[in-house]
Amino acid sequence: MKILNTLPSLLTLATLALFAAGCVSPNVNPPLARANTGYVDFHADYSAGLSWEVARFDERTRDFQRLFSEFEPPPGGVLRLAFPPGHYRLRVTFLNRVITQPAEVEVEVQDGNITPVRVTLTEAGVTFVQTKTASPGATAYGRYGRRTKIASDESVMYRLSAVGDAPVAYQPKERMPYAR
After folding, report:
1. pLDDT tens track for 104-132
2. Residue ranges of the domains in the chain?
């Protein structure tokens, strides 16, 4: 009998989990806008091979929650995320660049529209990035073990800024003026 009483609770939790997971869709590009959905297009002038990470500020936890994080750059250099209409505070960074700190932007997402967000990378100096690679094999002592190779490369650091533009009517990413 206890199982029958907990079944509705489990179904409710499963429904809430699906709803929470469905609030943001990663890198979408439907031919037409979906109902009760707005879109945010993230683009940068220097978009060659950028690996985007986007987080949303959660009022309940008072912290940013990752929405999108992928090492593979989006096709055409534009990252499009789908949101329910509303006001959002977003944080943007790149996984494959040295960034002094992420950029934050506030956007208004409207049903059936796209809110473009232009991210600017400005050189902020040079740093050294150290990489370590471990591999099995003979060590300097002649025994079999694990070797660690350490390399250091000079890399440019960037400062990020992000500006949200006014929402525009929906169209596929490849038709947007900032798409490559």
Report:
1. 999 999 999 999 999 999 988 877 666 67
2. 25-122+158-175
What are the pLDDT digits (tens) for 128-150? 666 677 777 766 666 666 767 77
CA distance 101 to 10: 41
**Residue located via tokens 């006001």:** 87
Closest CA relative to residue 93, chosen from 47, 52, 121, 125: 52
Range 25-122+158-175 has CATH code 3.40.50.720: no
Cβ neighbourhood burial of 167 (10 Å; 0-12, 13-18, 19+): buried
Whether this model's pTM surpasses 0.85: no
Burial of 91 by CB count in 10 Å (0-12 exposed, 13-18 middle, 19+ buried)? buried
